[in-house]
Amino acid sequence: MRVKGSHLRGARFALVGASCFLVQYGTLSLLSRFGMAPTLANGLGFAASAQLNYLLSAHFTWGDRRPSRALSTKAWLSYNATVLIALTVNTAVFAAACLAVHPLVASLLGVIFGAAFTYSICNFVIFRSRKVLT
After folding, report:
1. What are phi and psi of 101, to 5 degrees?
2. Which residue, 119, 114, 116, 120, is CA-closest to 97?
3. 12: which residues sit within 8 A by CB, 6+ positions away?
């Protein structure tokens, strides 16, 4: 049985990801403009973006699932661990792909693999659907 709205989950995931990228990019741009080192500014943008991404994921992407667990400390910690692992996946794919393709293509491949990892863990672990026993 399909959960209401689950057929749009992939689109919501992509929309949240794009929105959070804009937050990361905006933070990088703003902090760099005020003289912060770009690497530090990007890291702060990434951290802010990840927290917004968690909130949007809990309420919008997977909002139809287990609202009591969605905003728990355990779910938040699990989400942040997933983001760090996804960053590692992204970086590893990027580094390997750079040996064979243009860096922009390598970056896209890294994002695709990192996002697929994040979606899978969120969908099947962090925000998994709980079957109700009757």
Report:
1. -135, 170
2. 114
3. 60, 61
Q: What is the DSSP letter of 116?
A: H
Asked if residue 126 lies in contact with residue 75, where contact means CB atoms within 8 angstroms, the answer is yes
Contact yes or no for 130/65 (Cβ under 8 A): yes
How far is C-alpha 36 from the chain's CA centre?
24
**Residuewise pLDDT in 10s, the chain (134 residues):** 444 566 789 999 999 999 999 998 899 889 989 999 888 888 898 899 999 999 999 889 988 876 555 568 888 999 999 999 999 998 999 899 989 998 888 888 988 999 999 999 999 999 887 665 55
The answer to whether 103 and 95 are in contact (CB under 8 A) is no
Q: Is the pTM of this model over 0.85?
A: no
Gap between the Cα atoms of 97 and 133, Å rounded: 46
CA angle 54, 55, 60 (to 5 degrees): 105
Q: What distance in Å separates the CA atoms of residue 91 and residue 60, rounded to the nearest whole number?
A: 27
